[in-house]
Amino acid sequence: MSTSQLPTAPAAEIGVIGGSGFYSFLDDIEEVQVDTPFGPPSDPIAIGELAGRRVAFVPRHGRDHRFPPHRIPYRANLWALRSLGVRQVLAPSAVGSLTPDHGPGTLAVPDQLVDRTYGRSQTFYDEGAAVHVSFSDPYCPTGRQTAVGAARTAGWSPVDGGTLVVIEGPRFSTRAESLWYASQGWTLVGMTGHPEAVLARELALCYTPLCLVTDLDAGIEEGEGVTMDEVLRVFAENVGRLRDLVADVVKSLPSDRTCPCPQVLDGIDLPLTLP
Ligand SMILES: CSC[C@H]1O[C@H](OP(=O)(O)O)[C@H](O)[C@@H]1O
Ligand SMILES: Nc1ncnc2[nH]cnc12
Q1: In which domain, by residue range, is 224 found?
Q2: Residue 19 alpha carbon to ligand 1 centre in Å
Q3: 24 is in an annotated binding site
Q4: Which ligand is nearest to the CA of 62?
Q5: Residue nearest to atom 10 of ligand 2 (CA)
Q6: Does 264 reside within a domain?
């Protein structure tokens, strides 16, 4: 596998991957085209500065939402961020709730993930050597703690913890599937949290999900079922304060990584030269 050219100084230290309805971040940006062994990322990477922190932003669906969740170039997005120097990733996302207690407008920072996707490339290590990263705790504890703290300060009542089940999509779940997920104790459902989190782990990036509940999932609500219009409408109602929250988290994230997340993957020949 080829080695990417890295800039001499990191162009950015924090990456933000925007989801549905979150197509831009920061005003004064420079856009860079990054080529990767996995093709181009969803869009050129937007790089800007926030409170002295260099931030790289990419909207995972593309700014015109042309990539459905199962066709997002996840590997290219993570690789591009990493190649710019990013070491911590914030991942805002629209999700359904699997519990009536946490309705639309709730901010949740899950601590576990269940993968129900299929057919997505979910590793950088699919040739040459068998590499098995540890993924017991998929998210960065420091990033999570920072996000929950910033959310509380900003007046949200965030849900600290829970399990995000990631479905293949692009369809929403049936009521039976949804009830089954809820019966397992899983609390949130989305379509993009995997393989994004594991690809971040494979590149020794900290990854923190910021899940905005846009709906009660089909098995929980009593209405007609989840629709894309509903998701986008509720997200649009909340995106301003979510954007502010992401900015607060960027400002509060410690720059030295003292978390237990892998800093480099010992003994593993990363397909990328680490700075
Ligand atoms: C727009 S409806 C469903 C769509 O919304 C979520 O996207 P994201 O996680 O990027 O905010 C969900 O995962 C689906 O991709
Ligand atoms: N109910 C739901 N299921 C899957 N992905 C979602 N994204 C937002 N709401 C969702």
Answers
A1: 14-252
A2: 6
A3: no
A4: 1
A5: 96
A6: no
Active-site amino acid positions:
215, 217
Q: How far is the CA of 217 from the centre of ligand 2 (A)?
A: 7
- What's the ipTM? 0.99
Q: Is 111 annotated as a binding residue?
A: no
Identify whether 219 is part of a domain: yes
Residue 5 lies in a domain: no
Q: Does 99 show up as a binding residue in the annotation?
A: no
Total domains, the chain: 1
CATH of the domain at 86: 3.40.50.1580
Task: Give the distance (Å) from ligand 1 centre to CA of residue 189.
Answer: 10
Long-range contacts of 148-157 (CB under 8 A, 24+ apart): 148/109, 149/252, 150/245, 150/248, 150/249, 150/252, 151/107, 151/109, 151/245, 153/248, 154/241, 154/244, 154/245, 154/248, 156/107, 156/241, 156/245, 157/106, 157/107
**CA pair distance 188, 165, nearest whole angstrom:** 6
7 DSSP assignment = -
Whether residue 162 is contained in a domain is answered as yes
pTM score over 0.90? yes
Closest to 24 in 3D by CA, of 63, 74, 67? 63
Report pLDDT digits (tens) over 31-82. 999 999 999 999 999 999 999 999 999 999 999 999 999 999 999 999 999 9
Choose the residue to mutate in 95, 167, 230 for probing ligand 2, maximizing ligand atoms within 8 Å of C-beta: 95
Instruction: List Cβ neighbours of 233 (8 Å cut-off, separation of 6 or more).
Output: none
Nearest C-alpha neighbor of 205 from the set 39, 110, 75, 52: 75
Rg (CA), the chain: 18
Among 16, 17, 20, 232, name the best residue to mutate to test ligand 1's pocket (greatest count of ligand atoms within 8 A of Cβ).
Answer: 20
